Structure formats: structure tokens, C-alpha cells
Amino acid sequence: MRSTFSLFVVICLGHVLLISAQVQSKSGLPVLQSVAFGSFARAQQLTTGIADTGRSIWTNYFALRGAARENAALRQRILDLEVQLQEQQARGSRAQTLENALGLKESLVARTLAANVIAGNPQPGSLTVMIDRGSVDGVELGMAVIGERGVVGRIIAPLARDAANVQLIVGRSAAAAVTFERSNTGGMVMGGYGDPPLRAAYVSSLATVQPGERVLTSGQDGIYPRGFPIGVVESAERNSSGAREITVRPAVDFSHIDVVLVVLDRPARTAPSGK
Amino acid sequence: MKLTSVVLAILVALVLQVTLARYMVGGRWAFDLVLVGVIFAALQWGPVAGMFAGTLGGLAQDVLAGDVVGIGGLAKTVAGFLSGTIGQQLLLVRPSARAVIVGVATIVHRLLIIGVFALIDQQWPAVSWGVMLAEVIINTSCGLIAFQAAAALPNALERQRLSRRSSLSRRNW
Hints:
The structure holds two protein chains of two kinds.
Chain A: H1 2-22, H2 31-62, H3 67-102, E1 112-119, E2 128-131, E3 144-146, E4 151-159, E5 164-168, E6 175-180, E7 185-190, E8 198-201, E9 214-217, E10 229-238, E11 244-250, E12 259-263
Antiparallel strand pairs in A: 1-2, 1-12, 2-5, 3-4, 3-12, 4-5, 6-7, 6-9, 7-8, 8-11, 9-10, 10-11
Chain B: H1 2-21, H2 33-45, H3 47-65, H4 71-90, H5 95-121, H6 129-172
């Protein structure tokens, strides 16, 4: 029994380490990485200090014999690099001129790929589905997935050759840049809430968002193409602290998704359309 | 044999989970058949089997879901180990009593996941108590069916064996 409990503790610690390795700390680094990095940095500072001192003594006192030759070689190198830089600048300028001449504009019609939903969320609450298209079909991480009634989600890891994982827009940590159709204001819609599962944030306090208003993708996130429906504003109220809470009912019925479209072309980030 | 049985139970539960969950994505009905499989393994074969099943099933779910790998593994390992220990201490044999353990384990498992997410996000996540209640009911029902089937299976096999033997002896006669 004691050995079983020890095994249990070891396994739990293993899981905690595994989670820590993936979770970001406040500095943006994974917790395990930041702790390991912090501990290692001190030892590294010490060894680097010793090594630098030794190197400094060697280079400043014993290794000056080839300095003049090295100096000449470096001057020659600088000359070569300056010539290369000028060539690159000329090429860049020509490319810019060509782009302007051709009038490269973003295509409004994006290429899509139909896919069947083959599996539901393996973890209750994770809100992901698996589709029968993968990297061999041109599917890449971060691509938008849309349904017949609006935005479904985006491709997330893991991505297999002939299958891909789709994070639903209503899932925890899912988000999309949006525009409110009537008030023409921008904002962000985030998933992972109760009922309705979407909340809007970063909406101008001057905007008059009202229930019933359609919420469309703005294309500013570089994932979802512009103009696809996300849902409808269900409520826009101020809470006790004065902050506005906007809830959004998704356009897609996530309990009935059989066929979806993967948007193969990523949208160019558009200029903000909101006020 | 025990290891094969545990792996098989988890595999079957995982395949059933992803197949059936397809029809209930984002709905009010939630269930975790892998957790049922873990508790089944824990009560049938003890805490070590429960722990192993929890680690295996939880990690598989985490990897497939594309979420933080380890959260489900940790929650299911704890649930499997506790269920196995309780099952061993209380000598639970009746399917209904074992199904109750599945229900309790579902609550513990869900609260553990909520707690870990709260620690990671530094804020309390949105919890739908209705969905959680549905998960407890569905998981308990599935557990009851699984334990009933497991209890009935040896008797059915024995009856089949006896009937085959009696028919053979009649033929010899």
C-alpha cells in the first residue's frame, strides 16, 4: 500500500511538471522553463564570468599578434557587405514598384476545403472536434473553419496527415476579432462562458451595441476572413461595477455540425472598421 | 492480463467517447466515458490499475483535445487512485454501489479540473452546474450498465459452457 501511494505521488508530480512545462508564467515563459531558467542562470553567470575573465586576459595580452591582419580582413569584409546592402536595397525598391504597378489587392473569395466531422470532443469542456482533412490536403495550423451558418473555429495542434483538430469558437481560450454590424464598432469575442457561451470585449464604450445586432468577423485577427457571422448579441448590459457585459449567441448550432469548410487562404489583416 | 484489460477498457471508452460526443458538441449534455472506464478499472482491478488507467486515459484525452497536456491526466489519476482505494477498503461488489462511486468520482474529477484551470488562468472559470449535473447522471448511468454487464458476463459464460458440455455428453451417450 505504501509503495502504491509513493507511485501515486510520483505520477501526480509528473503530471504537475508536465502541466508546468506548458503553462505560461506572468513573464510569458512556461512556469517550469522560467524556474529552470532562473536557477540555471545564476550558475551560468558564474561560469561565464570565469570564462570571460580568462578569455579577456588571453585576447588582451597574448593574442594580439594577428590583430593587424584581422583588421585588414574586416575592412575588406565591410566593403563587400556595403556593396551587397546596396544591391538588396535596389532589389527591394524594384519589388515595391512592381507591387504598386500590379495593384496587389486582397482576394475576397477565399479557397475552401470541405471536411467531415469524424469525432467529437474527447474531453468534456474542451470543445474541439476532429475533421477528416489534414496536412496532406493543405490544412495548416491556425486556419479558419466555417460552417453553413457562420464561424465554427480554427485548426489547432495536433495536426495529422489526414485529420485535424478544430478548436470551436465557443471553447475556452478561443477568440475572434469582430465587427458589430449595426453600430459598426470593432471588438473581440471570446468563448468559454456558460450560456450563451460567447462574450464580447474591447468594445468602445461610446458604441451603442444593442441586443439582436449581428456580430461578424472583422478579419483583423489574421485568422477568420472578414464578414462571416459569429452570432447575435443577446444582451448588452452594465454590471454593478459599471463595466459593460455583452453576451453573444453563436450563429452555428454546435450540436449539429457534420460538414465544415476549412479556409485555405489566410486573410490579410484589414484596417479597423469600427469607430 | 490485467494490463491488457486496463488498456483495452480505456481504448474502448476513448473510442466510444469521441464517437458519441460528435453528436453532442457544445450541447447541454456532457459525459466522460473515459472517466467511467478509469473508475471501472479502479474498482475491478484495484488502485494501481485505476491510477494507470487514469494516467493513460487522461493523457490520451489531453493530447487529442489539444489542450494543456496533463490536466486530464492528473485529474483522472487522482480519481482512479481514490476510487480504487475506496473500492478496496469498502469491498464494493454491488453494481449500484459501484455506480455511486462513478458519480462521486465525476464530481471530484470535474472540481479538480476546474481548480487546475483556476490556478493556471488565475481566475475562476465559468462553470455550468447544469452540464455538470448532466455529466454526473450520464456517467453514473453508464457506470451502472458497465458494472451490471461485468457482473452478468461470468455467469452468462458459465451457463454457455455448461450447456455446451451437457450437449456434448448427451451426444457421447
